[in-house]
Structures are given as structure tokens and as C-alpha cells.
Design goal:
There is one protein chain. This protein is mostly helical. The protein has two domains: about 100 residues, no CATH class; about 230 residues, no CATH class. Helices cover about 65% and strands about 10% of the residues. A hairpin with a 2-residue loop joins strand 6 and strand 7. Helix 1 packs across helix 7, helix 8 runs antiparallel to helix 10 and helix 10 runs antiparallel to helix 11. The protein is globular and about 70 Å long.
Length: about 400
């Protein structure tokens, strides 16, 4: 029982560490440090853009752009979109040679306005979800933009912090339940989490790593499984503070895959490295071809982990949004066609969402299983070493 409690405590402590590994952009914003003082030229340029945009909408010239809508939903952003023009602004934190600027993304008015910092004198504007520097006429100053360090709390970072907080609450609650009711049957949240932990322990860690050495890898395996699974599920709920495509962000999957690679490399024994650089029983001339392939495999394995998770989660969102977009595409052609196709499109979108519930679990399981397999290969002992140990 104590081992279970200690494991759970290590799990949520690793989640706290994950804040620094996955979300370096965790500075709090203070709007009082910056005031809206956009230059007259920048304001006029923004107002001109707004007037043109509104005029196009009034005359029905601007058509529905499915590609833009899909990319905006699966990508990161400086605000948390809710519906229409309603969104939750997030802190924009820009560090440059001129100093640190902190202000709300609401200053950009959904990309239709510029903002000048009184502190640094830089005029900011958002373009394709990226903060850029502009001149008095609203044109991008590329030289100045390249000097930026954008450490803003974007939608993905905010989602990361929320999911870490949620997971810490889950595991702290379960750990306290074990402490309060030692030796008693689990109930409530504890009864839901415990079978999953036992499943990861018995069917993933023990089966892939072995009875003797699986325990030291359990904290990471549990952490990565619940982190991926919970964030996959959160991405399917289209309202704040959910709806972010966190596990469909290649930076996040790259970080997780890199951690797996580091743990594998550090844990690897001599038997593992001998098979990489000079596989026993293989002729020397074959090693000339085999050794480079094995070395390449060291880096391909984490790369495959990264791409599989990123591609599967993002593809699911894109397919669901694509069928949903067909309603508006057919609606622009003919109102009746839009209404008629909406039945088929909605049904298929619901079907895809149900499929994504399964994919959310499978991708977390596959990532955890492959990580365990890599760990098992790294700590596996040779047959002669096992015989000597006995």
C-alpha cells in the first residue's frame, strides 16, 4: 500500500517538473505595466483594414475559408476562442533588447488593431497568430521582429497549466484516499484510477521491462500515460478551458519523446550498447552496414513516437472539422444544399468524435507501451549475464 502511495506522489511531483519542461512560458501578466497607446498611423491602418473587412462582409464578398478555420482551431493562439468574436484574452509577454512588454492580447482586437508600448515604444500587431513588430504604416519590421523572444502564455500553455493542475488534484486526492482508508476497498475517484494504474503496471511495465527492473520506470510511465490521455480528452471538449490541441502540437510531442530518449540512454547497460555498436555474432563486414543503421535507429525511435502522437491527434481534429466545414461550403452554393448536407455532416462529425474517444486512449497507451519497450531493451541483460547472475 505504501508503495502505491509513494508511486502516486512521485507521479504528481513529476507533473510539477513538467511545467518547466513543457511550458517555459509561465509568467503572469500585469496589464498595469502597459497601456494602449498605438500610434496614429498604426491605428489608421488598422481601422482601414477593419472598414475593408466589414465592407466585404456587408456585400457578401468574403467567402468561408475552410482551410483557415481548421488551421486556426488545431493551431496555437494568443486568445482562447469561444464563439464568433467572443474569446478569452491571454497574456502577451515579449522580451526584446528594449525591455520586457506585458499586456493583454485583447489589445489586438482579434488581429484588427495594433498596440504601441509606452515602455519600449515598439508597435505590436498579431499576424497569423504570431506577434510581430510594425512601423507607423502598419508594415512588418522584420529586423525588429527577429529580435523578439515571445514567452507569452498562449492557448496551449494555458491548457498545459490547467491539465497539470487537474492531474495533480486527481493524484493528490487518490493518494489522500489511500492514507485515510488503508486496506479498504477503493471508492469514488480512487476506484476509477486504481485499475488503470494496475493495468499500466502489470500489462505494460512488467511485461515490457521485467519483474526486476520495472519499478523505477513506473513514475514516468504513469505520468506520460495520464498526461497524454487527459489532454487528448480535453482537446475534444470545444469550450474553454478545454479545446486546445495540446497533444497535436509537435513541440509537446517532441518534448515527451525526448524525455523517453534521455531515460532510455541513461538507463542503457553495456549489453544494449554492444548490440548497437557491435552486435555479437555478426561478421565484421556486415557491421559496416548494420552499425550505422542501429545508430540511426536510436534517433528514429523517439522521432516515430513524436510523429505518431502528433499526426494521429491532429488528423482526427482535421477530419472532424473538414466534414463540419462542408455545411458552410454547400450553404454558400445553395441554402437547401447546406441544410440537406448538414444532416450527413453532423452525423459523421459525431461519429468521428466517438472514434477520437477511442483514439485518445489508444495513443496514450501506445506511447506508454513503446516507451516501456525501449526501456526494457535498454536494461535487458544478455543470456550469459543472466546465467552468471543465477
Amino acid at each position: 500500500m505504501l508503495n502505491k502511495i509513494n508511486t502516486l506522489r512521485i507521479v504528481f511531483s513529476l507533473f510539477l517538473t513538467g511545467i518547466f519542461l513543457l511550458g517555459a512560458n509561465t509568467t503572469f501578466a500585469d496589464d498595469s505595466l502597459a497601456t494602449p497607446a498605438a500610434t496614429q498611423h498604426a491605428v489608421e491602418a488598422a481601422e482601414s483594414h477593419d472598414a475593408t473587412h466589414q465592407n466585404q462582409e456587408a456585400h457578401g464578398e468574403e467567402k468561408f475559408n475552410a482551410g483557415k478555420m481548421i488551421l486556426e482551431h488545431v493551431g496555437d493562439a494568443h486568445d482562447w476562442h469561444i464563439a464568433g468574436h467572443l474569446s478569452i484574452p491571454l497574456p502577451v509577454i515579449i522580451y526584446s533588447e528594449s525591455g520586457l512588454d506585458i499586456f493583454s492580447s485583447s489589445r489586438f482586437e482579434h488581429g484588427h488593431a495594433a498596440y504601441e508600448s509606452e515602455k519600449t515604444g515598439i508597435i505590436y500587431k498579431i499576424h497569423e497568430n504570431k506577434v510581430i513588430a510594425v512601423d507607423f504604416n502598419g508594415n512588418e519590421n522584420k529586423a525588429l521582429t527577429e529580435t523578439f523572444y515571445d514567452i507569452s502564455i498562449t492557448k496551449n500553455v494555458a491548457s498545459l497549466l490547467f491539465s497539470v493542475t487537474l492531474l495533480c488534484w486527481i493524484f493528490i486526492s487518490v493518494a489522500k484516499a489511500y492514507t485515510r482508508n488503508p486496506g479498504k476497498a477503493p471508492k469514488g475517484l480512487q476506484s476509477f484510477v486504481e485499475p488503470i494504474i494496475i493495468f499500466i503496471r502489470d500489462d505494460v511495465a512488467k511485461a515490457s521491462i521485467g519483474e526486476k527492473k520495472y519499478k523505477k520506470f513506473m513514475p514516468y510511465l504513469l505520468t506520460v500515460f495520464f498526461f497524454i490521455w487527459i489532454n487528448n480528452l480535453m482537446g475534444l471538449i470545444p469550450i474553454a478551458p478545454f479545446g486546445a490541441n495540446l497533444t497535436g502540437n509537435v513541440a509537446v510531442t517532441l518534448t515527451l519523446a525526448t524525455i523517453t530518449f534521455i531515460i532510455t540512454t541513461i538507463s542503457a547497460n553495456g549489453h544494449y550498447w554492444r548490440h548497437i555498436f557491435a552486435m555479437p555474432g555478426v561478421p565484421a563486414w556486415v557491421l559496416v552496414l548494420l552499425t550505422p543503421i542501429e545508430i540511426l535507429g536510436l534517433f528514429l525511435r523517439p522521432f516515430v513516437l513524436m510523429v505518431r502522437l502528433f499526426a494521429n491527434i491532429t488528423a482526427g481534429h482535421i477530419i472532424a472539422l473538414s466534414f463540419f466545414s462542408l455545411i458552410f461550403i454547400f450553404g454558400e452554393m445553395n441554402t437547401g444544399a447546406g441544410l440537406g448536407f448538414s444532416l450527413f455532416s453532423t452525423a459523421f462529425t459525431v461519429f468521428m468524435m466517438v472514434m477520437e474517444l477511442l483514439v485518445a486512449f489508444l495513443q496514450a497507451y501506445v506511447f506508454t507501451l513503446l516507451s516501456a519497450v525501449y526501456f526494457g531493451a535498454a536494461v535487458e541483460e544478455g543470456h550469459h549475464e543472466e546465467a552468471h547472475a543465477h
